[in-house]
């Protein structure tokens, strides 16, 4: 599915999920470089391909449609693009700069979010996409900037630098930033946590993959006992564990 946001994340592809051309080309070029080949992305309307230099200097580079698993001739590419280009392409094709490649990927993510507003990845995709566009100078859809404040407040409340960087592009940024600064000036007391028997098995900042559901996450905090609601604990079988809620 082209507009499935998950297809823009490399971890989904590594887990065997079908993906989109721009993600496949990213992986292909990285693997080619590891094998001693020179492979670079070439952006066309509707698809990104890879241009691979052949070992012999006199040889024409190969244009590979990684998504379709096919080596494309220049005639095939020109035929496909006949309605969108003014003159036929010639070798060597223009390599797409990495910055343009990243901006194109970010725009794909924002379009995916606009089409599917219920994805659990939307907040993280929007954060990544708007960050790329703001840093590299690309333009985002207006709704993307306006949605970022809620995303930052809910999922990334500590990222004040990013908030301030976006403030010029966000319609409601000034009042929101003022409220956050007031909250920062009156922080909640820090409660020291200690375990009597053993330290926590995992540490804050550690990236992990769930054994059963395969999703990826990062540890941002921990509790001495399970702090979820009793209903959630029963539903997830917490009382059946050896130490119950005191894992």
Automatic annotation (TrEMBL):
One of its GO terms (molecular function) is DNA binding. Coiled coil: none annotated. Residues 201-238 form the Hemimethylated DNA-binding domain. InterPro entries: Hemimethylated_DNA-bd_dom, Hemimethylated_DNA-bd_sf, SirB1_N. Residues 1-87 form the Protein SirB1 N-terminal domain. It comes from the Eukaryota. This is Uncharacterized protein. The lineage of its organism: Eukaryota, Metazoa, Spiralia, Gnathifera, Rotifera.
């Amino acid at each position: 599915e082209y507009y499935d946001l998950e297809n823009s994340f490399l971890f989904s592809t590594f887990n065997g999920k079908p993906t989109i051309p721009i993600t496949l080309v990213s992986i292909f070029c990285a693997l080619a470089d590891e094998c001693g080949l020179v492979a670079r992305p070439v952006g066309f309307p509707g698809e990104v391909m890879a241009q691979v230099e052949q070992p012999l200097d006199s040889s024409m580079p190969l244009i590979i449609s990684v998504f379709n698993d096919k080596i494309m001739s220049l005639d095939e590419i020109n035929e496909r693009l006949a309605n969108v280009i003014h003159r036929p392409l010639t070798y060597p094709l223009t390599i797409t700069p990495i910055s343009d490649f990243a901006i194109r990927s970010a725009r794909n993510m924002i379009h995916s979010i606009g089409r599917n507003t219920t994805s659990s990845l939307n907040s993280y995709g929007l954060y990544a996409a708007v960050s790329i566009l703001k840093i590299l100078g690309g333009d985002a859809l207006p709704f993307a900037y306006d949605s970022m404040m809620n995303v930052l407040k809910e999922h990334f409340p500590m990222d004040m630098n990013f908030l301030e960087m976006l403030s010029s592009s966000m319609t409601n940024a000034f009042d929101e930033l003022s409220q956050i600064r007031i909250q920062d000036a009156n922080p909640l007391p820090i409660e020291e946590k200690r375990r009597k028997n053993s330290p926590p098995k995992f540490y804050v900042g550690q990236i992990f993959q769930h054994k059963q559901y395969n999703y990826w996450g990062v540890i941002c905090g921990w509790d001495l006992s399970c702090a979820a609601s009793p209903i959630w604990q029963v539903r997830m079988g917490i009382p059946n564990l050896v130490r119950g809620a005191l894992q």
